[in-house]
Amino acid sequence: MKQETAIRITVMILGLFIMSLGIAVSTKAGLGTTPISCIPFILSQGFPLSFGTFTFLMNSLFVVFQYFLLKEKFETYQWLQIPLIFVFSVFTDIAMILVGDLIITGYVFQWIFCLISCVLVGFGIALLLKANLLMMAGDALVRTLSLVSKIQFGYTKVGFDSTMVLIAAVVSWMLFADLVGVREGTIAAAVLVGLIVKFFIPRLRCLDKIFMKKRAEPKSCVKAETSQR
Asked: How many domains does the chain have?
């Protein structure tokens, strides 16, 4: 069981890094980043705090909102979303450094890298889902809102993402009198990432086999010891 958990944590961390790399690439493409990342990215362009720092602050607020919405129904282990957010935020800043020298010119190439970023984000999310340990704070808040409002998760997700984009657009106009970080690529990410996740999930069944194998190994050892006795 310990080996299985260790592998799941490794898969989750890898997924977080790939997600952060995809988001960083989307910022360099210049067509807008993902709906959940719009606000922290815009704030990082207008204030002397990093993209990762604003990501951590915003997502930590999402966890607090979950707590106040669920109250006694909020499960204690869900506070572990905060260290998960911290790791993701650190990865976000590292990814921004890694792509710092990337210069993309021409609308066609912007779209190519925008699509690459969607694939990276989608693949990272698929790994997170396969790890099956914790949800990202944004998705966990959507689940909470869905439970409280009794509106289907899919509809709640659409409403949540739309709200994030609308707030980001307002903040962008207030800070820069222009749309920064919110463009056609944002809409593309909202539509494509979910489809990409669905594409990768069945193709990552090998991870399920690895998890099951590690779960079965201790039982095999116990049976071997029993038969020797």
From this structure: 1
209 — pLDDT class (breaks 50, 70, 90): confident
The boundaries of the domain holding residue 88 are 2-224
One-letter amino acid identity for 165? V
Which token pair is 110?
């912007």
**Residue 229: inside a domain, yes or no?**
no
pLDDT in tens, 45-65: 999 999 999 999 999 999 999
Closest to 24 in 3D by CA, of 84, 102, 136, 82? 102
Q: Which secondary structure element, helix H or strand E, spans residue 123, and what is its range?
A: helix 107-131
Task: Confirm whether 71 is domain-assigned.
Answer: yes
134 contacts 87 by C-beta, under 8 angstroms: no
Structure tokens at 34: 């993902």
Provide the sign of the torsion angle of the four alpha carbons 85, 90, 96, 99, taken in this order.
negative
CB distance 55 to 37 below 8 Å: yes
Q: Are 29 and 120 in contact (CB under 8 A)?
A: no
Pairwise CA distance, residues 211 & 219, whole Å: 14
pTM of the predicted protein model? 0.88
